[in-house]
Design brief:
It is a single chain. This protein is of the alpha+beta class. Helix content is about 25%, strand content about 35%. The protein has 14 helices and 38 strands. Strands 2, 3, 5, 6, 10, 14, 16, 17, 20 and 21 form a 10-stranded mixed beta sheet that branches. The protein has a 7-stranded antiparallel beta sheet with strand order 7-38-8-9-4-1-13. Strands 25, 26, 27, 28, 29, 30 and 31 form a 7-stranded mixed beta sheet that branches. The longest helix is centred in the last third of the chain and has 24 residues, at about 685-709. The radius of gyration is 25 Å and the shape is globular. The protein starts with 12 loop residues before the first helix and ends with a helix. About 45% of the residues are buried.
């Protein structure tokens, strides 16, 4: 396996070369009941087109399904829900003509779909299965014929320490045991697969890479615009994009993917299976200043506007000094059998990197939690060696009692020492306490920062994200196709540097309302702050960001202009609405289950989702014939919204890409402090080595687990 690294990540190359990328047990694809005698539908074509501009990405997926049998069948396609993604369009071709879906209440949509299905009429439905999957049902797929569908979703895009990351999720994760016991999946694309991504940035980009798809073609197509492409076709031969060689004065590990403008190879692969995420990284040039960027949408002077404001501070957060306590809470459920020796070796190498003034604690959990280290221990050979000998004898097994693992990890904390807890899991809490409120209450009472590695697309992201928020920590999603070293580097630079606490953002002017997030809490090294909201009055507004770093107060200010008519980014309305819905859901989950206000919140969320045409836990997108829409008195609001968004995207494609910086006249951040960048010095050796080594070895287990199952 050939490892490409960003600067500063070579230390783990030897470890990571031991891993192989294996197909997971479950992936995106067509579903079929396990014991069904009906023939299996096939995926004839699967095409992905991504437009990522500035602060958000629009992903369009077109598929052609084929029914090889002599009878009409229903197609059910399932794929993982992307992080913070809002489905805005679903189109089904009926009689050769595209018909766009409309959002209605979930149960109503399912009832109408079943009615049309029983009548033999064309219908399609998109439903969200909580945080796990989007499920698309299409009926009927006529005998020996094809159907064509298109799905479009929108999601925010963020930079972290100068590195951007986009994931097209395909790996299911395999944690929904009930669903996987009932359904089998066909994830093979029989004829044609393509992935095309247009990346537009107002800031210089050094390099672009796909960690597990070296065959991808990367090409600069215009100033500040790049194209990432790959495709499969029956009978095609693979072509590989080469990496740049290091210069004479650089070590071999300094090899980099070629800069985008130097690559033009066609990325062709011989076959395609929808069983591996597609992860794209891009890295901005170093030494860029801290900035405030702004994009907006406002139809006219009489309508409210929607804005997305992105603050990228300069790197003025110092390295933490003094000893720290490290609590590792590790999932050792039954699926870990066969990989446990790898975990022990990772712990062994990690503990040897601790410094004398640090302490460590190791907690293992499955159906119960074990304080395996017996409290905090000094990092001496006399303590580490016998502990590791005992650890080697441990036998993994059983289910996942996450609450017990966390509770055990929080015991015995020293309030005079800074404590970081690292939780690594790819599953869900399925034993013991499972209510989200109980988890949040547990962490609110503890003086600890929780850092979570969310491995896999089916992990309970809402729960894990909420826990990190209440503890002022952070969560990092990790894909099986990720640049794991890069992800771990991003995390450790935050854990070993100061953070800004008690962060508050004020906007004076513009009649600004409906801000999301409502509360910010903390900002870590390299993090961007993205805020969405509405405004009624165009013109100048004052922006103020305050927070505490150590015992000192920090204050940053600037003035920006909220524009009048602004028509190029209508997708912002859906992005704002979906972020607001996520915040409402988080608040509702924190309330007691019997709280009557939950019903009012659910109704408010349903109304908001219908207003902005979004698929949620409470709404679905239905497609029927135009005349059926009329009979059901379902207005074609989404059809008009989709047309508006498509027109705006076409206009953006025809315009040169420019910076969206809004604070050029009065920089908000000290220009002598450049943005934090990956590999840019100062990361502490303590947390850096522990998390890199243990995290990398845990990932090996994770991949081996997928391969074994």
């Amino acid at each position: 396996m050939n490892i490409r690294t960003f600067p500063g990540t070579a230390a783990l190359s030897a470890i990571l070369t031991l891993t192989t990328v294996a197909a997971p047990a479950d992936a995106a694809g067509l579903l079929k009941p396990v014991n069904s005698t009906l023939p299996e539908l096939s995926i004839r074509e699967h095409h992905v087109n991504v437009v990522l501009e500035h602060s958000y990405a629009v992903t369009t997926v077109e598929q052609v399904f084929h029914n090889p049998s002599p009878q009409a069948l229903e197609a059910i396609y399932s794929f993982p829900v992307p992080d913070h993604a809002a489905v805005g369009e679903f189109t089904y071709w009926i009689d050769g003509q595209p018909v766009t879906g409309e959002v209605i209440k979930k149960q109503q949509a399912r009832t109408l779909y079943e009615q049309e299905k029983q009548a033999g009429h064309e219908a399609a439905l998109v439903e969200q299965d909580s945080y796990k999957t989007f499920d698309i049902s299409v009926t009927p797929v006529q005998a020996n014929s094809d159907v064509r569908i298109k799905l479009v979703y929108i999601q925010p895009a963020h930079l972290d320490s100068g590195v951007g990351r986009y994931v097209y999720p395909l790996e299911d994760g395999g944690v929904d045991t009930q669903k996987n016991a009932f359904w089998s999946r066909n994830e093979v694309v029989d004829e044609k697969f393509s992935f095309n991504m247009r990346l537009a940035s107002g800031y210089p980009i050094d390099s672009i890479r796909l960690p597990q798809h070296s065959q991808a073609a990367i090409q600069q197509i215009a100033p500040n615009q790049w194209q990432v492409s790959m495709a499969s076709q029956v009978g095609a031969l693979p072509q590989t994009v080469l990496s740049s060689a290091p210069s004479a004065d650089q070590p071999p590990e300094a090899a980099q993917p070629l800069p985008a403008e130097q690559i033009s190879t066609a990325g062709i692969v011989p076959a395609a299976s929808l069983d591996q995420d597609i992860v794209v990284y891009w890295r901005h040039s170093q030494n860029l200043p801290g900035t405030l960027d702004l994009i907006s949408y406002k139809q006219s002077d009489t309508t409210p506007g929607t804005f997305m404001m992105t603050l990228t501070p300069g790197d003025d957060l110092g390295v933490l000094q003094g000893g720290r306590d490290w609590v590792f809470v590790l999932d050792v459920s039954g699926s870990m059998q066969g990989k446990y020796s790898t975990l022990v070796e990772g712990v062994r190498q990690g503990l040897t990197k601790l410094q004398p003034d640090d302490r460590f604690k190791v907690v293992l959990f499955n159906n119960a939690a074990t304080d395996f280290s017996g409290g905090f221990k000094p990092a001496t050979a006399e303590v580490i060696t016998p502990l590791l000998n005992q650890l080697e004898q441990y036998q993994p097994g059983s289910g996942t009692d996450l609450y017990s693992g966390l509770a055990q990890g929080l015991k015995g904390l020293n309030t005079d020492r800074s404590t970081a807890m690292i939780l690594v899991t790819d599953g869900v809490a399925n034993l013991g306490v499972t209510e989200r409120k109980r988890f949040l209450e547990l962490l609110e009472k503890a003086d600890v920062r929780l850092f979570t590695f969310v491995m896999g697309n089916s992990a309970n992201r809402p729960l894990l994200n909420s826990m990190t928020e209440v503890s002022n920590g952070f969560a990092i999603s990790v894909s099986n196709a990720d640049d794991i070293v890069g992800q771990l580097m991003l995390a450790t630079s935050k854990m070993t540097h100061q953070a800004m606490r008690d962060v508050e953002l004020k906007i004076d002017g513009g009649r600004v309302t409906d801000l999301t997030p409502e509360q910010i809490n903390s900002l870590y090294r390299g993090e961007q702050l993205t805020v969405l909201g509405h405004y009624r009055q165009p013109g100048p507004v004052q922006i103020s960001l305050t927070g505490k770093v150590g015992g000192q107060q920090r204050h940053y200010t600037t003035e920006i202009i909220l524009p009048g008519e602004s028509l190029l980014h209508p997708e912002l309305e859906r992005i704002w609405a979906f972020a607001t819905l996520e915040n409402m859901q988080a608040k509702m989950d924190y309330l007691e289950e019997d709280d009557s206000s939950n019903e009012d919140t659910k109704q408010a969320m349903t109304d908001l989702a219908i207003q902005y045409d979004l698929v949620t836990d409470y709404t679905s997108m239905l497609i029927v014939r135009d005349e059926v829409f009329k009979q059901l008195n379902i207005e074609r609001n989404n059809q008009q919204r989709v047309a508006n968004e498509n027109n705006a995207r076409q206009q953006r494609l025809q315009q040169p890409v420019t910076s969206q910086r809004a604070d050029s006249q009065k920089p908000m951040f000290n220009q002598s402090h450049h943005r934090a960048s990956l590999g840019g010095g100062g990361s502490g050796a303590i947390g850096h080595w522990i998390l890199l080594l243990i995290g990398a070895l845990l990932l090996i287990q994770y991949r081996n687990r997928r391969r074994t199952s």
